[in-house]
Design brief:
The chain is of the alpha/beta class. Helix content is 42%, strand content 13%. Strand 3 and strand 4 form a beta hairpin. The radius of gyration is 19 Å and the shape is globular. The two termini are 27 Å apart.
Length: 304
């Protein structure tokens, strides 16, 4: 309890950071403009927009902030899907240049993989007497990156399950009807693209990969050896001991600590800025890498 109290007190010295969020550019429900407006509503000061394998939402989000003069600092980001030891692992890039050639090329390759995977998933569902999946998810994506989350929403709308988690369990998990293994880039390739785009690489939500402690340590070590710089320690919904354990990994492997809601849509348990604090004894990613902080003269600092 003392660590939480200390961490909460430390937040008064910083803007409130939420460094993991999604918009309609991938599988979020809010438009980029709607996302930044909600971030302000939830008193977030620094928001990283980290859509899945796309940076298409960043420019409209920046435009909305400028046009409405919102007291919000937007950190350009991306969440890159990778494959490691037959597990899908997500790497967040913070403070990237969306126009960097290395990033544009990697995301083009990822987009092609996403489209091919979507077509295969739809084909498998078609054979299982669930027609129209590809057209349905393309309509839900509305031009954004197609994710399995779109398939989940489509199947819920078709009455095949009562909620999204049930869809993943019954249709999209390994060995199920709609499961198609991904062919993503490697962790090394993702980190290199982030670095060539002037960003910092963060291991996203390590507690969600269903790895044993032994394998999670192997993942963290591999990520660090490939040049990764930070690990997501704090999320708004975690197992009770997870935050302190991830903070220990940050210390053990000399990684900075990040925090993010992984927001996709307004709901009761995952919300922008909610319960985001870092345990004592870790280096916040924005402290270790000051370029991720709002710069002097920005509106957000003037409002603090």
């Amino acid at each position: 309890m003392g660590q939480q109290s200390n961490a909460m007190n430390q937040l008064t010295d910083y803007p409130l950071y939420d460094l993991h969020s999604h918009s309609q550019a991938s599988d979020g429900l809010l438009t980029p403009a709607g996302l930044v407006a909600r971030a302000v509503q939830m008193r977030v000061s620094v928001l990283a927009l980290t859509d899945h394998d796309t940076v298409a939402g960043i420019a409209p989000a920046q435009q909305a902030i400028a046009q409405q003069q919102l007291p919000l600092y937007l950190l350009p980001g991306v969440e890159i899907s990778t494959l490691w030891e037959n597990h899908e692992i997500h790497i967040v890039g913070l403070g990237i240049d969306p126009q960097a050639p290395a990033m544009k090329q990697l995301l083009l390759n990822q987009s092609m993989c996403r489209q091919y995977r979507a077509e295969l998933i739809a084909s498998r569902l078609e054979k299982a007497q669930i027609p129209g999946a590809l057209e349905g998810v393309m309509a839900l994506a509305a031009g954004g990156a197609i994710t399995r989350g779109h398939f989940a929403r489509f199947l819920v709308a078709q009455g095949k399950a009562s909620n999204i988690s049930q869809v993943f369990k019954n249709y999209l998990a390994r060995g199920k009807t709609g499961y198609v293994p991904a062919q993503w880039c490697t962790i090394k390739q993702a980190i290199e693209a982030i670095h060539h785009s002037a960003g910092r690489a963060v291991l996203a939500h390590p507690g969600r990969y269903h790895l044993s402690a032994k394998w999670l340590k192997r993942l963290v070590l591999h990520f660090r050896e490939q040049g990764g710089e930070a690990i997501e320690v704090a999320q708004c919904q975690q197992a009770p001991a997870e935050r302190s354990q991830l903070a220990q990994y940050a210390r053990d492997y000399d990684l900075a600590a990040s925090q993010g809601s992984d927001f996709h849509q307004p709901c009761a348990w995952i919300e922008l800025g909610r319960k985001l604090w870092l345990p004592a004894g870790v280096d916040a990613v924005w402290t270790r890498y000051p370029e991720l902080q709002p710069q002097p003269g920005t509106a957000i600092l003037e409002d603090q």
